[in-house]
């Protein structure tokens, strides 16, 4: 059997990524291997500092977010992701969600479409 995995890598507005958490809550991270470390960790404080003082540099200082899903629909330049699971980037997503300045930041997002049984 051949397993087909499709992947997209693209910059996404920080507010869009933060709003995923607002929309889906903790269920968004059900398949994430690590839990939230807390907003007071050195890494999360630095993300907030970058978002506050230099949001345009966020994409350069951050490793991004990986989203696994079982469906993607391309609508022009927009990807509609079905049943997203953030499997890497919970700290980033939650930092973007809590920042008032995330709309001025971008983050690199990797979307991986897997068959639904994975």
Provide structural commentary:
31% of the residues lie in helices and 30% in strands. The chain is built from 4 helices and 6 strands. It has a 4-stranded mixed beta sheet with strand order 1-6-2-5. A two-stranded antiparallel sheet has the order 3-4. A hairpin with a 2-residue loop joins strand 3 and strand 4. The two termini are 14 Å apart. The model has no long low-confidence stretch (mean pLDDT 92).
Instruction: List segments where confidence is low: pLDDT < 50 over at least 5 consecutive residues.
Output: none
Count every beta strand, where a strand is a DSSP E run of 2 or more residues.
6
Widest beta sheet: strand line-up: 1-6-2-5
What is the count of DSSP helices, taking H or I runs of 4+ residues?
A: 4
What is the overall pLDDT average?
A: 92
């Amino acid at each position: 059997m051949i397993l087909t995995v499709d992947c997209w890598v693209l910059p996404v507005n920080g507010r869009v990524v933060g709003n995923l958490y607002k929309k889906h809550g903790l269920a968004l991270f059900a398949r994430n291997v690590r839990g939230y470390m807390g907003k007071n960790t050195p890494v999360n404080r630095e993300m907030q500092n970058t978002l506050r003082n230099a949001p345009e540099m966020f994409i350069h200082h951050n490793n991004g977010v990986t989203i696994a899903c079982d469906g993607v629909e391309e609508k022009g330049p927009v990807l509609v992701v079905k049943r997203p699971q953030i499997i890497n980037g919970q700290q980033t997503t939650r930092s973007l969600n809590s920042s008032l300045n995330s709309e001025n930041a971008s983050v690199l997002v990797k979307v991986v479409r897997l068959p639904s049984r994975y």
